[in-house]
DNA sequence: ATATTTTAGTTGTACATGCAACTAATTGGC
DNA sequence: GCCAATTAGTTGCATGTACAACTAAAATAT
């Protein structure tokens, strides 16, 4: 059958891997009680207390509306706090949020070990670098 | 700020590129009236009339439930037809579906040209191959 | 100083996607 | 031949994600 068009398409192959690795990531983060993106958001906030939502959305490469809802949820679970400052919203970690950072780091490490065990460390690094560079290029040259 | 953990994480970098390229793909397919995944599903059905939903889900690397809903929508728009055969469902292209295949192929080509213009043809090919191989490896060694 | 434009954030809505639980059909063991 | 186990598909629900339209604040132009 003619299905080469799928395997040759960057849209398809990227999202296929995205679905696979998201599943693995969710497994490794399950014990933390948070999804990987929430964990990463918490880590960003903890490492830059008072960071604005705009910056967070940029760093996480998600739409502002998506970020609003993520922060809503983390605030409800008392992981972060909002402080409105004019038209911007500054986000701070709570004690609970700060306490979780180490747990999240451990889950990240387990995730990394897990895919490196399958792909090999060098191949995984190489792929990650290429993905990062490609995203940067596509964002720049829109 | 300490944000290396994002750029070093295959989960994050893959999904970031996924979001970017999905947006571009949706732009290029917009004129067809269908999202890229629906177009690809139609192409698979047209190139294998009578293919089962199970096979379609496998080839598209999506969950069976997701495929059910995609086929629902394509059937409503009279792009494909279901024929139940025992416990399996065979999917056939309608005339309209078959007629759209060329339009979808053109959109795929525009998409490919567009990201190759930014990334370079060789780099895009290389990345696509790596993504494909990595997905295969992760699926096998789960 | 006021009016216009830009910027940050939120909310409503839509869609892709998956999991768990379910139904129905087939297969395999005895 | 019947019962158990497997398989294919569907449905209900939850979640991540985006866009468009909106509000409110800040910056800019006149």
Automatic annotation (TrEMBL), chains A, B:
Pfam families: MarR (PF01047)
Keywords: DNA-binding, Transcription, Transcription regulation
Transmembrane segments: none
Residue ranges annotated for the HTH marR-type domain, each copy included: 7-136
UniProt xrefs under SMART domains: HTH_MARR
Record-level Gene Ontology MF annotations: DNA binding; DNA-binding transcription factor activity
UniProt superkingdom: Bacteria
Record PROSITE patterns: HTH_MARR_2
InterPro entries: ArsR-like_HTH, HTH_MarR-typ, WH-like_DNA-bd_sf, WH_DNA-bd_sf
Protein's name in the database: MarR family transcriptional regulator
UniProt organism field: Cohnella lubricantis
């Amino acid at each position: 059958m003619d299905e080469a068009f799928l395997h040759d398409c960057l849209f398809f192959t990227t999202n296929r891997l995205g679905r696979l690795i998201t599943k693995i990531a969710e497994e490794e983060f399950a014990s933390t009680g948070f999804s990987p993106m929430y964990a990463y958001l918490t880590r960003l906030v903890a490492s830059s207390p008072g960071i604005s939502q705009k910056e967070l959305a940029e760093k996480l490469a998600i739409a502002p509306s998506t970020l609003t809802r993520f922060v809503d949820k983390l605030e409800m679970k008392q992981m972060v706090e909002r402080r409105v400052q004019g038209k911007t919203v500054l986000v701070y970690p709570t004690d609970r949020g700060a306490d979780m950072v180490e747990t999240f780091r451990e889950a990240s490490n387990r995730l990394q070990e897990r895919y490196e065990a399958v792909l090999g460390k060098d191949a995984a690094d190489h792929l990650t670098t290429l993905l990062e560079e490609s995203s940067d290029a596509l964002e720049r040259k829109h």
